[in-house]
Amino acid sequence: MVSTTIHLMRHGEVHNPEGVLYGRLPGYHLSDRGVQMADRVAAHLSGGLDAPRRDVVALFASPLQRAQETMAPIAAAFDLPVTTDEGLLEAENRFQGLTFGVGDGSLRHPRHWPLLVNPFRPSWGEPYRQQVARVLGVVDRARDAARGHEAVLVAHQLPIWVTRLALEDRRLWHDPRRRQCSLASLTSLVYEDDRLVRISYTEPAADLLPGASAVAGA
Quick one: signal sequence residues (predicted)? Predict the structure, then answer.
């Protein structure tokens, strides 16, 4: 059997002083800490942190700026080109560009309440199953490109998390506060030939995560 590993990486922390749900909006780049997170993961994968160098031969990234910036040090560490793939985009969200909450957030306006009627789909944005389908499409392309080796795919929290839920045969609707997909984390899919045999999760930049504060967006 041929073993292939696909690392789904969430981007690093974003500069977002207004605390909006930035979604697919352009212009949201990594914060200084986000750059440190990206550098940390690049070092972790390339053997610079007392860990073995990973056998990475293919790189794919969401076209959004924060994902491209997160991938940059990994591409430099492995001297590989980056394939930009829209299948890794952030989920569509009709609260994009707004603050999300009850107090001064968008939920205080009754006009937004109809968007919350169906959390199972969800009614406020791109269906979960649609997100899973497009991410798994990129996983398939990456597995073909890296067969027998490893690939890194930089994407966004929600698409990564619902893809993991689907692969583990769990329900896709969930409490966002319970996602195991922190900033700059790696959700690693291990395949034997085309059969998924294991999912693992690591946080190479755990010590750089914001304390208990919420991070807006994904």
Answer: none
Domains annotated on the chain, with CATH: 3-208 (3.40.50.1240)
Peptide bond preceding 81 in cis form (omega within 30 of 0): no
Q: What is the pTM of this model?
A: 0.87
For 147-186, how does the pLDDT look when each residue is reduced to its tens digit (9 = 90+)? 999 999 999 999 999 999 999 999 998 888 899 999 999 9
Cβ–Cβ < 8 Å for 9, 153: yes
